[in-house]
Design goal:
Elements (H helix, E strand, L loop, with lengths): L9 E4 L2 E4 L3 E4 L3 E8 L5 E5 L4 E7 L3 E6 L3 E6 L6 E3 L5 H4 L4 E8 L9 H8 L2 E9 L1 H9 L10 H14 L3
Parallel strand pairs: 10-11
Antiparallel strand pairs: 1-2, 3-6, 3-9, 4-5, 4-8, 6-7, 7-8
Helix pairs in contact: 2-3
C-alpha cells in the first residue's frame, strides 16, 4: 500500500515498519498525548482508541501523525505500541467512523458472529461506495440473523451499589 522509497523516511518498531504516508490507527486511549491543530492555533491533549491518521513525518526521535480531524500528535518510540497500520480495519474498529469507500468481505464463519447488526454497522460506514465481496447466501443469512445474545454482566449489581452510595450521601 505504501512501498519503500528513498524519498520516505521509515522507522522500525519491533517487527513493524512505519513509513511516511502510512495510514495508522491509535489503538488505546492516551489522555495525556499533546496535540496541535494543523492551523497552528489550537492545541490540547488526548488521542483516543480508533482515531485514524497518516504518518506525516519521521525523525530519529519521533513519528508525527496528522489525524483525520486535523490534530498533529508526535509519538516518541516509547509509545509506538499505541499505533497500528490501518489500511484495512475490522467492522468493530470502524464503529463511529465513516469512510468514502468500504470494501466488506463476507466469508464463511461462525453463524453467531454473522448478524444483522454486524452487517448494518459495516454497511453504514460507507459514505459514497460500498463493495461487498462474498456469497449472496451469507449476506441473506446475515439479514435474517437478528439473534442477539444475552450478555451476563454485573452491571445491574454495580448500579444498585452506586445507587445505595448515592442515597446515603447528604447533599
Amino acid at each position: 500500500m505504501n512501498p519503500k522509497s528513498p524519498f520516505k523516511r521509515e522507522k522500525e518498531y519491533g517487527s513493524v515498519v512505519f513509513r511516511e504516508g502510512d495510514k495508522v490507527m491509535q489503538i488505546r486511549n492516551n489522555y495525556d498525548a499533546y496535540w496541535e491543530g494543523i492551523d497552528g492555533k489550537s492545541y490540547g491533549s488526548g488521542v483516543y482508541n480508533g482515531d485514524l491518521g497518516t504518518i506525516h513525518k519521521i525523525t530519529d526521535n519521533e513519528i508525527e501523525v496528522v489525524f483525520d480531524d486535523e490534530r498533529i500528535v508526535k509519538y516518541e518510540s516509547s509509545v509506538l505500541e499505541d499505533l497500528e497500520h490501518a489500511y484495512a480495519i475490522t467492522i468493530h474498529k470502524s464503529q463511529g467512523g465513516e469512510f468514502p469507500v468500504v470494501v466488506m468481505p463476507i466469508t464463511n464463519g461462525p453463524p453467531m458472529l454473522y448478524t444483522r447488526n454486524l452487517l448494518y454497522t459495516g454497511v453504514t460506514r460507507a459514505k459514497k461506495m460500498l463493495i461487498i465481496i462474498g456469497k449472496e447466501s451469507m449476506v441473506r443469512f446475515m439479514i435474517h440473523n437478528c439473534d442477539t445474545k444475552t450478555r451476563n454482566t454485573g452491571l445491574i449489581y454495580k448500579l444498585k451499589k452506586y445507587q445505595e452510595i448515592f442515597d446515603e450521601q447528604k447533599f
